[in-house]
Amino acid sequence: MKRASRFSPKQVFAVSAFIAATLSSAALAQTRNNEQIVEPVPRLVQSEAVLTPAPSDAVVLFGGGQNDLSQWHTVGSQEPATWLLFNDSMTVNRALGAAGSIATKRAFRDIQLHIEWSTNPVIDGEQQLRGNSGIFLHSQFELQVLDSWQNPTYVNGQAGSIYLQYPPLVNASRPPGEWQSYDITFEAPRFNAAGELERPAFITVFHNGVLVQNRSEIFGATYTAQPSYEATCTPYAHAEAIDCSGAMPLLLQDHGQVVSYRNIWLREL
Ligand code: MG
Questions:
Q1: Which residues are placed with Cβ below 5 angstroms of ligand 1, an ion?
Q2: Number of domains, the chain
Q3: How far away, in angstroms, is 26 Cα from ligand 1 center?
Q4: pTM score
């Protein structure tokens, strides 16, 4: 004897439609082929920057009385970093033209990272040309820095996105000129002795204290034709390929706009 279903056909259809819609929106929220996606638009969340001083076991990269560029050099040339120093912050140096992206002299694997940033209070561009910089974990994977206060752009390119891979879960941006914070945990990729990928990288990000990336699996290096992992790679702004299978520097992007950073510290995990 056939048992009666607890749900009517109408209810089954409604549940199926809901599951399908949920799955399709989840599929829309990430991309593996560098596609720019424009929806769904992350909802706005009001929050304040979290200004956490470096704990006692942190590696201080900038701030806390160490307001100099001694931990950084210019990517590519290995020359001293030439970003502008003002009070307790450093700023992409547009006075000199392209000062270049900078990277830490030290290399790291798995880290907890705190970093504060601010975009130009004078709005002089739109979309991707408005307060664009970026934090390249492992010198290869860009967590986007952008003035995303009333500045629509493709959602996997706005502040808090893993560039061209994941939009942020929500938009927790502060207005231009205000300090904002990222608190990040990053799990570096692992390769075996043969140079094959054993485990991809993962990233969790809090923007102004609000979760925007929840252990997102990174699909591969930003700005490659198709995101992928290579044991020998050419990191962002590098001219030549290097061994990328072990520890790698942290890199800050010069994208041609005025963006400042302060209070940068990390804990090695
Ligand atoms: Mg950028």
A1: 132, 134, 255
A2: 1
A3: 24
A4: 0.89
